[in-house]
Amino acid sequence: ERVQTVEIGDRGWGKNLSSSFGLGLDHIKTGPDHILFVAVLLLPSVLAFRGGWRPADNFGKSLWRVLKIVSMFTVAHSITFTLAGLELIPLPGPRFVETIIAVSIAAAALLNIYPIWPQREWIIAFSFGLFHGLGFASLIGDLEISRSTRLVSLIGRNLGIEVGQVIVVLVVFPALFMLRRTTFYLPFMKIASAILVVVSFGWVTERLFDAPPVATKAVDLFIEWPRVMWIMAAVTIG
After folding, report:
1. Contact 188, 55 (CB under 8 A)
2. CA distance 171 to 224
3. Burial 131-170, CB ≥16 within 10 A → b, else e
């Protein structure tokens, strides 16, 4: 037929915001490197460093550390996410950004094993959060849309990312706090951190040198959505 009718849907800002929110939330489910970065920073948040890692005595102090980590990560990635998304700063190539994101997980994990800078996780969250924001901005970097439409999309996606991030923290943090006094928590933190170092360097080789996606497949196998959330929720309840 020479004539076709195409339904492009609701172009209003409300539809844009809600759709972008869903896409941001979906990015948390399909982009495990961002959540693993937050998770590796949460591991020592229920401990205090006094010549070595010790269980934290106060829930409020641990919660404050978590709030600082999440807030600083949010502030940092929101800055670069917005600036790059609005094309106010250049967006580096995805190979560079994704490699730095992988390195951020390794750096945070190594500091759990060798705490040369203890109880400063919020600084790490902010510093590397700037690069994570560039990774988020790549989600809309190629869209041919107006600046106002792009801004609404940025806000929606950022809100979706934050909600997904908060859900993970709410599920994981209570379990970590309850487990902090057990004899296996410190070995668990160090082993988990060591595994994440290996995974991170696997991602680096994949993203820099186009190596076979062994690390990616291994991570996807263990944290498949939504199974991983049910597992974490069961651990927390237990």
Report:
1. no
2. 16
3. bbbbbbbbbbeeeeeeeeebbbbbbbbbebbbebbeebbe
Cβ–Cβ < 8 Å for 47, 55: yes
* b/e burial code for range 7-28 (CB count within 10 A of at least 16 → b): eeeeeeeeebbebbbebbbebb
Count of C-beta atoms within a 10 Å radius of residue 67: 13
Q: What is the DSSP string of 17-35?
A: HHHHHHHHHHHHHH-HHHH
DSSP 8-state class, residue 49? E
User: What CA–CA distance (Å, rounded) separates 220 from 32?
Assistant: 8
> What residue type is 46 in one-letter code?
V
Alpha carbon of 72 to those of 42, 61, 82, 120: distances in Å?
13, 16, 15, 11
Report the mean per-residue pLDDT for the chain: 86
- So what's the pLDDT on residue 157? 87
Rounded Cα–Cα distance for residues 129 and 137 (Å) = 12
More confident residue, 28 or 196: 196
